[in-house]
Specification:
single chain; Rossmann fold; 2 domains; 40% helix; globular
């Protein structure tokens, strides 16, 4: 598998995003790309740098993205995720509108450092398509509209990291319904559960006291799968507004895992969906599975 972690600075929040992303990637032995996306530098806009003839080490340009990538690389090295080598700008190369650091491959997976410049959503989308990532991991946007846009336009699973505390013992709130992505969400939840040694709460919510055949079948399938793989879990059927229940049940000490909604793209963009509203309102990390 291939995971993407998008970072924008070197704050404690970014460090927590990096830590949870690395821990999840380790559980899947996944290739890991750390990507910084920033505004275009004046040198690139004015064409002062000819990437076809110069290496980035010859730029002599202060670029905040390089600082972020070096900071992330050093953290990865400390935790044993990155190869025992140095962050050397002579190893930076330009390819297809992005800048990548050439790093030796580790035993089980590949670490990549990438710098992009331009509009955040557009460049994220380009990187996801270029790398064909299984999961994109990033901080939760401050603006709800951006959460909506990212959820809708990135064709991959998305992990919004909000209020993550590496010292807490998280449980997993697995939201089960009859959507097509639910089974994949259940399967991924077991891998993440093992990595965090976390109990799973399998939750199905109906707006009324009646649970339709699709919901009942999905709930039963999830129970059987969790039993088969031997994961400790608790199973719940609750009534109410699904988003309200998900947010209340999760609180701050759960990782919410749920399937991405399918349906009319225009309506989702205007009105959102259960997963999008859950990601916007929750106070904890949310993984939306594609």
């Amino acid at each position: 598998m291939k995971f993407l972690i998008a970072l924008k600075n070197t704050t404690d929040e970014s460090k927590n995003i990096l830590e949870i992303g690395c821990k999840i990637a380790e559980g899947f032995s996944a290739d890991l790309t750390i990507c910084y996306i920033g505004k275009q530098s004046r040198a690139l806009i004015e064409g002062d740098v000819n990437l076809a003839r110069q290496t980035l080490s010859e730029w002599n340009i202060h670029h905040p993205g390089l600082e972020v990538l070096e900071w992330a690389f050093n953290i990865l090295k400390e935790k044993g995720f990155a190869p025992d080598s140095e962050f050397n700008i002579k190893n930076l190369v330009e390819e297809k509108g992005r800048i990548r650091m050439v790093l030796p491959k580790t035993t089980n997976y590949q670490i990549r450092l990438v710098l992009r410049e331009g509009d955040l959503l557009s460049e994220l989308n380009k990187e996801v398509k270029h790398g064909e990532f299984d999961i994109a991991i990033m901080g939760s946007p401050r603006r709800k509209r951006m959460t909506n846009k990212i959820s809708q336009f990135l064709d991959t699973s998305i992990f919004f990291v909000k209020n993550f505390n590496p010292n807490w013992n998280y449980k997993i709130l697995l939201c089960v319904d009859d959507s097509r992505a639910t089974k994949r969400a259940v399967i991924l939840s077991t891998r993440i559960s093992k990595q965090f040694d976390a109990e799973i709460i399998s939750l199905t919510v109906s707006k009324t006291s009646f649970f339709g055949k699709g919901y009942r079948n999905a709930h039963t399938w999830a129970e059987r799968y969790l039993k088969r793989v031997g994961i400790p879990f608790e199973s719940r059927l609750l009534s109410g507004n699904p988003v309200d229940v998900f947010v209340d049940e999760a609180g701050e000490d759960h990782i919410i895992i749920m399937g991405k909604a399918k349906g009319n793209e225009i309506l989702k963009f205007i009105f959102g969906s259960k997963p999008i509203h859950t990601a916007q309102r929750s106070n904890c990390p949310v993984l939306m599975v594609n």
